[in-house]
Amino acid sequence: MEYDDRSDDELVGVAATREIYATFGYPPSQPLPRSRRHACAVVSGATFLSAVLVVVAARSYDATSAFSALSPQLRAAACLSAHVPAPTTRRAGSSANKPTHWSLKSAADPCSEHDVIIATTQQTQLEDALRRVSDPTSKNYRKYLSEGEVASLAIDQEHVSKISTWVQSIGAREVKRTKNGEYITARASVATWAAALGCDFYDYEFNGKSAPRCSEDYSLPHEVDAAVHAVFNVGNLAPKISKLKGITKLADSQTGSEYVTPSVLAAFYSIPSTGASTSGTFGPDILIPPTGSASARQAVFETQGEDYSPSDLATFRTYFGLPPSTATPISNVGAHDESVACEADADLCDEGNLDMQYMTTVNPYGPTTYFYVTLADVATDPFLAFAMALADLVEPIYVASISWGSSESEEVPSIMTSFDTEAIKLGLKGGTIVVSSGDDGANGLGTVCGYEPSFPASSPNVLAVGATNAYDWSGSAGAPNEIVCQADIEGGVVTSGGGFSGIYEQPYWQGAAVSSYFAQVDSTVNQPAGGFAKGGRGYPDVSLAGKDFEVVIGDVLYLVSGTSASAPSVAGMLARINAGLLADGKPSVGLVNPTLYASSGSFANDITSGDNKCTASLLECAEGFTATAGWDPASGWGSVDYLRLEALLA
Predict the structure, then answer these.
(1) What is the tens place of the pLDDT at every residue in 188-223?
(2) What are the pLDDT digits (tens) for 286-315?
(3) pTM score, two decimals?
(4) Interacting residues of 641 by C-beta distance below 8 A, sequence separation 6+
(5) How far, in Å, CA of 148 to CA of 605, rounded?
(6) Both 285 and 200 in a single domain?
(7) Sequence-distant (≥ 6) Cβ neighbours of residue 279 within 8 angstroms
(8) How many angstroms from the chain centroid is the CA of residue 14?
(9) Which residues are within 8 A (CB) of 338 and not within 5 positions of it... i.e. 6 or more apart?
(10) What is the DSSP letter of 465?
(11) Is 27 in the same domain as 100?
């Protein structure tokens, strides 16, 4: 029996029907045999096919090829999950700030599945709550909140319920939810998301990665708009991330006082150790007695395919006479602890090994997590992935170190807000995030001159750490021996990042320090060139050695430089102080910035020489800042003295 396209009520829309006929080689004037029929599921009221189901009854047709030959409009109609109502509320600017290294290609395949991340709106009073527990003048100083109290303060479960209902209503399926519903990952076809969000998806490509994204702003239904902070992986793309720049292979057993080793770090910055002779190849070195609390957890966060090697950590500990690696309870999240990767290519492990070896040098007995954020591997912003990881922690982390950064101008404001929200929530529970300030001075990622603040170092909710260099590491810390690390002075390799945020306003605890800095440099030869946000959050907050750290990678000794060395070392100091506090039944240090600034730098060795005008590639720029007495946007308050920091925070 045959049927005609003008009478069969399964086919709606003459244009759509004729296209299907043409696809399979049938003139539209001829009836289509039912034995090779292509039935079309139709949503009532649609102006053309809302779905196409290809049914092949004869072996002469290749269904996949035939379906692929349909127009994008028909393929999109075929791949809609359900009847999706049009959204009504446009999110202005939601597709702005696309990093220029991503290239716009053709329309995305409407039938490919795509995950979006829906961030639930969280409460705005979190910043006030953080101030109450972190301001040393507050009656609630260090009276931290429990996990449940923070969740109740931050999240309205009605918002979570509305989002979940909407996801189901459009035919998407929920594939992951953080434990309190802060972030819901949902999966559906690109066609479904295009209809649900009111924007067209295109493929964007970079370095072998392809990601479907909307080229214009997305929209949401009115009934769910207030519940949603943002929908990610719709307009945003991963920014360029700074990579460790200074790594040099050493000759066998080559070492010396001009390099930073665990013993040099301990002696220079007053980190207590026995100083006893050890059985290490290079000793005597730092020996730390097993003290403190087993609950004083610390972590390094990594991305961009970075591994660390457990076998290299063991070799490093043995070589420098440190407590054995088995003394450190280590957990791994993200499955990036492959020693074989480090043996094959040092660039795959330089950051990870550096972070793990020196954080656990300073605090070797604290439970340590190597936290690799896997979402970043699919073009998701790694700092969004970091925020999601924080939201989903089962056990609290008291100190987290991040040695990665991007340019503020390439970040999406809603992602920065999500990062800050989770950083604030960690602070409310007594946690601290330590971030390296960057290796290209005040000039972004170092490719051109011009102020370009580094995120997340520019966030007021983290402790930003810059780098110093020294004329003699066997000498005294601070001026005049210790200077700002800059690539064009004393073989500095990198230039310590610093400046003023163009996004974040100056926090309440920083006003006096910034005013003092400008009082010293304005109308002098050290007055910085214009073009920065003078009222923005200034960074770094503190500094530490950042040049020529001896690191074991692939069973070989390397010199590694950068603020990436400074940050995990400072983080280890804070974690070690936490261990003592928690063992004594006292609260952890939490967000330390208000306390450090209130002390006017009593914990630091002042750095008064150097600037951050050049980049790691020796691009000399007019933009940048000069070190002065007290706080400055080149060295912060100066380098950290462990004993004075402990006295201030304990």
Answers:
(1) 999 999 999 999 999 999 988 899 999 999 999 999
(2) 555 555 667 789 999 998 889 999 999 999
(3) 0.88
(4) 269, 270, 477, 603, 604, 605
(5) 40
(6) no
(7) 321
(8) 51
(9) 307, 309
(10) E
(11) no
